[in-house]
Write a structure and sequence with these properties.
The chain has helices at 6-36, 44-69, 71-78, 80-83, 87-116, 120-141. It is mainly α. Helix 1 runs antiparallel to helix 6 (120-141) and helix 3 packs across helix 5.
Length: 152
């Protein structure tokens, strides 16, 4: 059933990445503004973090569905020994999902730790650190050689 919606899932995943990246930049800039301007963490920092993590969660769910429907992933698991030697197949079956799951976990840790911080500056600093690490992992895990906007 999901195979029938593969193109829609791929298009959605491709377009949503830009919102995730935009939210990532926004949460990092917002954290820097909060630190420099000694702003209260709520609502700015909390809202930007919530948007970033929520978009990551949505992207992850679409990615899981995409993996289930993906002919690339299916071909990898049909012959893993050979597939792991082919960069494109290994990337989409192992490297991309692993990197993105790691980025998602790091972002969630940042959200929890910044929320628990006792002072606003500590909250912004914590958010900046964890979201920046998450954002870098995302940038490293995106297949930049693929079309920037994919629409079938």
């Amino acid at each position: 059933m999901l195979a029938n919606h593969y193109a829609l899932l791929l298009d959605s995943h491709s377009l949503l990445r830009w919102l995730v990246l935009l939210a990532g930049v926004a949460v990092l800039v917002g954290s820097l503004i909060g630190i420099a301007g000694k702003k209260p963490f709520k609502p700015l920092g909390r809202t930007l973090g919530l948007i970033y993590v929520s978009l990551l969660d949505t992207q992850f769910l679409i990615g899981v569905l995409l993996c289930i429907a993906s002919p690339i992933v299916h071909s990898v698991w049909a012959n893993p020994a050979v597939s792991m030697k082919i960069h494109n197949l290994r990337f989409f079956a192992v490297e991309h999902p692993t990197g993105m799951i790691l980025a998602l976990i790091i972002a969630h840790i940042g959200a929890v730790l910044s929320k628990k911080a006792k002072e606003d500056q500590a909250a912004y600093t914590t958010a900046l650190l964890w979201y920046a690490i998450s954002f870098v992992v995302i940038l490293l895990s995106i297949p930049w050689w693929r079309p920037f906007i994919r629409l079938y």
